[in-house]
Structure formats: C-alpha cells, structure tokens
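Holo prediction. Input below; ligand is flavin mononucleotide.
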Amino acid sequence: MACDCDFRKFVEEARTCRRFNQGAPLSGQDLDWLVECARLAPSARNQQELRFITVQSGKTLDALFPLTKWAGALKDWGGPAEGERPTGFIAVLVPENAGELIFYDAGIAVQTIQLAAHSKGFGCCIIKSFDVKKSAELLAVPQGMKIALILGLGVAVEKRVIADIPENGSLNYWRDADCVHHVPKRPLEALLVARF
Ligand SMILES: Cc1cc2nc3c(=O)[nH]c(=O)nc-3n(C[C@H](O)[C@H](O)[C@H](O)COP(=O)(O)O)c2cc1C
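Structure of the complex:
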C-alpha cells in the first residue's frame, strides 16, 4: 500500500536531534514501541542477532547521560543542558563474535528507530562516542554481547535544517544565533556516480 506522505520531506526533517523537552519524558511504552519498529527491520540472513536495552527517566538514565558525548563539532557546546537532556536511551547490542554483517543490521535498526521517533515528534541522536566499559557495566550488558550504538531520545525541541555545503567545503554542522542547527549535505549530483 502506498504511504500517503511526502517521504523525502519526512526524511529531510528527521535530522539528528540533541535538545529535548525534559519536562515531557518518554514512557517505557514509547521506548518499547521504538524497539518494536526495529524488530521489524531487515536483517542479514534474517538472523536477528541485535538486542536492545531501554532506559527511561530515572537513576540509570542520569548515570548513562554523562557517559555519552554529544556534537563533537560544536566546540563551544558541552552537550544538552539541564532541561534539554534526553529522556530515554536505547542501547543496541551486538554479539562480540559477530561478523561484519551485524553492523549493517545495526545501521538499519537505528535509522528505523530514528524515523519511527520522528513520526511521533520525538528526536533521536545516534551515539557512537560513549564510555564503552562504564556503559556496559551500568546497563549489565550480558556476557558475549557489546554495545554497538546508543540512541539518545526525547521529545524534540531543537530546530534542525539541511544546508548547502559552504564555500570552504566543510561538512561540519553548525548552529546559528537563533540556535537553529544546520546540517550541510552534499547535492545529489555529487553522490550519483553514474546513471546507466
Ligand atoms: C554511526 C553514527 C555515529 C554517531 N555518533 C554520534 C555521537 O557519538 N555523538 C553525536 O552527537 N552524534 C553522533 N552521530 C550523529 C551525526 O553527528 C549526525 O548524523 C551528522 O552530524 C549528520 O546529521 P544528521 O543526522 O542530521 O544528518 C552519529 C551518527 C552516526 C550515523
């Protein structure tokens, strides 16, 4: 069945989000629903080896937040301030001994969650930069598994827009005086190597 929405526009708006409404925390059901969407995503050889840990507001979330690193390119910003912090996390686990195919699965799963989150007005930040050891201890990651990515989630308050690449060619995102977050994307013609 065709979807009655402008999917390109939807994807354009589903940008990484790093500022959230902490006063409207995500519920456990919200987080379960996001994992449910990832459950239905494609999986190499349909092995479905990813596992997930959800963290909603509370002590564990408060302890996990400082183990995550946000927006390395914004040098004068120390990450989401109190009041704008994520209100949920989802850790994506992979088997320690898995082959490279598992990382395709992980990528598909996190983008599925990011799009699912956007469909509900939630923002999502995929995070690879986190304290691997402390996060695994805190979340009691089962033996034989490791955390591949952590998703920071919450009701989105940050305005994010796509930008053209500036003349100096930098791909760094930036924030303007109104705190709007700009993300430069290469044009279609730069990506399409050939058309046969
Ligand atoms: C695999 C991966 C790892 C990422 N790790 C981080 C991270 O550790 N911290 C962060 O703030 N953003 C992280 N991001 C978000 C990227 O910075 C973001 O996708 C990029 O700036 C482009 O913005 P966009 O998602 O709005 O297109 C990550 C994204 C991906 C796909």
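Residues 15-16, 18, 69-71, 125-129, 160, 173, 183 surround flavin mononucleotide (CB under 6 Å). That is the main takeaway for now.
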